[in-house]
Amino acid sequence: MKPIRIITPTGHLGTTPLEKGSFERGCAQRPDYIIADSGSADIGPYPLGADRPASSEVWQRHDLEAMLVAARKLGIPMIIGSASDTGTNRGVDQYVRLIKEIAAQHKLAPFKLAAVYSEVPVSDLIHRVQAGETIAGLNGRPTADLALLKRTDRVVAVMGVEPIRAVLRDGADVIIAGRSGDCAIFAAPILNAGGGEADAYFCGKAMECASFCGEPFMGKETILGRVDSEGVFLTAMHPAQRCTPASVASHAMYERLNPFREYVPGGFLDMSRCRYEQVDEKTTRVTGQTFVADAETWIKLEGAGKVAERALFILGIRDPYTIANLDRAIDWTKGKLAERFGPVGGTYDVFYHDYGRGAVMGEMEPTPAKSPLEVGIVVEVTCDDAARAEVICHIAAKNLFYARLPDVKGTAGTAAIMSDEVLHARPAYEWTLNHIIKAKDQSEFFSTRFETIHA
Amino acid sequence: MKLVELASTIRSKNAGVDHITFDIICRERHNFERVRDSGVLNRASVARLFGIEEARVTDFVVFEPAQAIKFTIRRLRPSGCKGETDMFGSQQYAPLFDVEIP
Prior knowledge:
CATH superfamily of chain B: ACT domain
Number of strands of chain B: 4
Largest interface: A-B, 48 and 44 residues
Oligomer: heterodimer
Strand order of the largest sheet of chain B: 1-2-4-3
Shape of chain B: elongated
Distance between the termini of chain B: 6 Å
Strand order of the largest sheet of chain A: 12-13-9-8-1-2-3-7-4-20
Shape of chain A: globular
Number of strands of chain A: 20
Radius of gyration of chain A: 25 Å
Largest sheet of chain B: 4 strands, antiparallel
Number of domains of chain B: 1
């Protein structure tokens, strides 16, 4: 194969800005591609369900500008996956607009842009299920039924390598892709250059979070990946960072159920026999990965749906007697809510997040609570109607101020109120789909549009 | 000795939207072997530590290349649901610190 060299400056383009120093050092290596992933499911179901970005456009533009200007100067393709956090059509169109604005600002020579869309209308999935197709649940989730799909507001299909390989073959200089598998955007050009699937996917897996595969721990620093007939080579570009067998291996297991397998459309990467070797100060070579092909192509679907409107209120408690009896005080306030609005968990829900007393781990907290000096409480109320959520939230919080505990000394208020206001939170959404669907081929759920960008 | 004194990294993080995964990584080979060979950490013991049913521990592996032990717990609700307390799953590891390794 022809050796391929790729740089990536960020593991989630747009969250916080990439660091210019190591990026410029990476560009000076004359790479063949500049690639970055811009998506994450960690940001929760709201951005997908409500179709809103989680990142600020200021940092999205910052990183796209650095990458586009460098890629056009070097005359190499640039690939962005999972545009604007979620990879919906809105995200792709937003990034295409930013690319045009940046091209105009820098008076860049004309180039060919490919937008690859990955949103799937919920109505299309409903028709497929009605026609007998199966949308199988991942990780023990049940098969999707019509009720689940009707609770779903927005769905993206997660693309594998094929849609990106196709637009690269057609001469795309800049690719803005919708929701994409983290390793697919890196693997696509390696496969096009004749690389094997195992090396291509492993290189993508190692590079998808950029400098997270190096040590010491740093985010937003550039990593150089090389694939040739000798294996996968990962090199840190920051002067104080190295890619070591330990850092690359520990990244191989990051954020995954287990460290040995990475599923992609068309098979899985088997990392159980990987060998990691330090080949120079900053570079680790990885060999021994294999790829197990599947005769069928399954495409992952991510979906989110709105559950309720939401309101918040912030309180603090200092009285040691009230803290010791906080469960009783909360039970009393819940009782008052039930008198007026019906049972909690009926037409509304209330959560008392009592920070200092097990709010972070909840049911998984094994350590018996010690009496803290203070407890901070965030009252969360969810309800179909925003105005009603606000009314219930206000009472749910203010009743803690009036909590009736038999021996309380502080009879002028049993809670400290930071600001006497209900905070309007964004609505509660739920990850409804974490599923897979059988596809005719890897391109079935994706569409492509080419455009020549003239500054 | 406590696990926190033997491991260089003890972390938790979402693995997809339905799971939280835990990584315990030892920089020193002898520390890793001590933790691994003690057998103190296993599916049953981590389930007990977090007070959950063992069936919710979906994966438990020793990952030699990273000198690591890794296990994964299925969430009761997907990340970011109403009432969520740790959307990234990033602060669930602290109880591992005090696990005694002989």
